[in-house]
Amino acid sequence: MKKIILILSFCSSSIAFAQVKTPSSVSNDSLNKSINALRKDVDNIKNLKITGWVQAQFQIADTAGAKNYDGGDFMPGSNNRFMIRRGRIKFTYNQKNSQYVLQLNATERGVNLVEIFAKYTDPWTNSISFTAGVMNRPFGFEIQQSSADRESPERSRFTQTLMPNERDLGAMLTFQPHAGKKLHGLKLDAGFYNGLGIAVPGTSTPAGAAAGTTGINGLTDFDSKKDFMGHLVYYKTLKNDKIKVGGGMSHYNGGFLAQNDTIFKSIKTDTAGNKVWSMEKGFSNKIAPRVYYGFEGFFSIKSPIGTTTLRGEYFTGTQTGKIKDSKSPVAAVNSPLYERKFSAGYVYFIQRIMETKHEIAVKYEWYDPNTKIAAAQLNGINGMKEGEIKYTMIDVGYNLYLTQNVKFLVHYNMVSNEVTKIKGYTRDLKDNIFTVRMQYRF
Fold first, then answer.
1. 22 falls in which pLDDT band (50, 70, 90)?
2. Using N-to-C axis directions, what is the helix angle for 2-18 and 28-47, rounded to 10°?
3. With 0-12 CB in 10 A as exposed, 13-18 as middle and 19+ as buried, what is 297?
4. Nearest in space to 39 (alpha carbons), one of 16, 13, 15, 20
5. Where are the domains of the chain?
6. pTM of the complete model
7. Residue 99 in contact with residue 126, Cβ under 8 Å?
8. Where on the phi/psi map is residue 118: left (φ > 0), alpha (ψ -120 to 50), or beta?
9. How far is 379 from 423, CA to CA, in rounded Å?
10. How many CB atoms lie within 10 A of CB 362?
């Protein structure tokens, strides 16, 4: 595309010169102006980078209408579907010490904004930068990893629950020493965000959204509370790039304005021996907390059998949500709130088969929205409903990197829920998902 634009620019300039009647009518000044204009056009083209990817997939669920985190719930009468999971186009314009990024997503469900931000890097050390706009949340590894690079079809269930659609509107400072500096490999991000995320058509249901509620698109903040996010990570290569190791930690400190007067913060045992929520009043217009701590680790080694990678993350903290749902809200919540202590994480095992294009990926993950409640104590009464159920997932897949542009994924995600006394959850639900995906990237 850049070559075509360059040729057209050159041709248009040549035509302009050819239309001049006599050589003597062309002054040096006008010639220099035309050359400078052409040079500026060429420089602008060189600074612009256009990339993108499309992910076309076919999925089969165990049952019709299966609820899932693998691209959105199935329709009530269907247990299989074709869909464009993502259709991205990204424009990146680079100048010295500055960058502008615009990314859009186009699927059969509609077109939506993915990210739009500006970034400026200080010209003295080239290590400190300021970014403002809609961008990835600086928390953990998986949230910031591109969907085009991920070894499994989707991000973890807990990631989608705590930080839906992984991006938010805010501003961030970054410290990242460049190559040659002593601290190269270290990266520190810290910023403030609305805390609402963004909405993607057809993949999520806004938690707490009521009729007539504003801010439903996930970008119009409904309160004055801004959320802090910080991420510190260090990666290093050893043995001539044969070994790569890394680790990091993250912190999220935020919340949202409560619209309802009632909140349930603690759990007690009643006279019958049942676990019940303890109700508190007078919470209206107070901040419902969302406080997370994250830890990540990475290890990769090249050997005769190929590249072996182990990667994992662990999240813990406090999440406030609704009685049946622990999703982070994207709109004002008018119902009573439930404050929970959660635990979540995942572990990846990834094996590239020698020097081939074939790869095996296995991922184990879990999300326990309430660590203070056991499955046997969930009876469907006194607030002990499906919002407290723990889920575990095992995703087994095969990836084929056919060419530099084309990638195929075949994955089976086995989802297990706690067996409880809650109606509809007295057994493990049949909600496993089989996914076949073709990705084209340019």
1. very low
2. 170
3. middle
4. 13
5. 2-441
6. 0.87
7. no
8. beta
9. 8
10. 15
The first and second tokens of residue 374, run together, are 């056991």
Q: Tell me, which fold does domain 2-441 have in CATH?
A: Porin (2.40.160)
Q: Which helix (H) or strand (E) holds 256?
A: strand 243-257
Q: Which amino acid, one-letter code, is at 144?
A: Q
pLDDT band at 380 (very low <50, low <70, confident <90, very high): confident
Helix (H, G, I), strand (E, B) or coil at 158: helix
Task: Say which residue, 292 or 8, is predicted with more confidence.
Answer: 292
Phi first, then psi: give them for residue 158, nearest 5 degrees: -70, -30
> Residue 218: which pLDDT band, with cuts at 50, 70 and 90?
very low
Of 413, 263, 271, 396, nearest to 338 (Cα)? Answer: 263
Instruction: Determine phi and psi for 377, rounding to 5 degrees.
Output: -95, 0
pLDDT score for 354: 96
Reported in sequence order, the residue ranges of 23-79 that DSSP labels E, i.e. its strands, are: 48-61
Computed from CA positions of residues 230, 175, 129, 313, in that sequence, does the dihedral angle turn out positive or negative?
negative
Of all residues in the chain, what percent carry a pLDDT higher than 90? Answer: 76
- pLDDT for the residue numbered 201: 64
Check: CB of residue 359 under 8 Å from CB of residue 398: yes
User: Cβ contacts of residue 238 below 8 Å, gap of 6+?
Assistant: 244, 245
Which residues lie below 8 Å from residue 385, measured CB to CB, with a gap of 6+? 323, 324, 378, 422
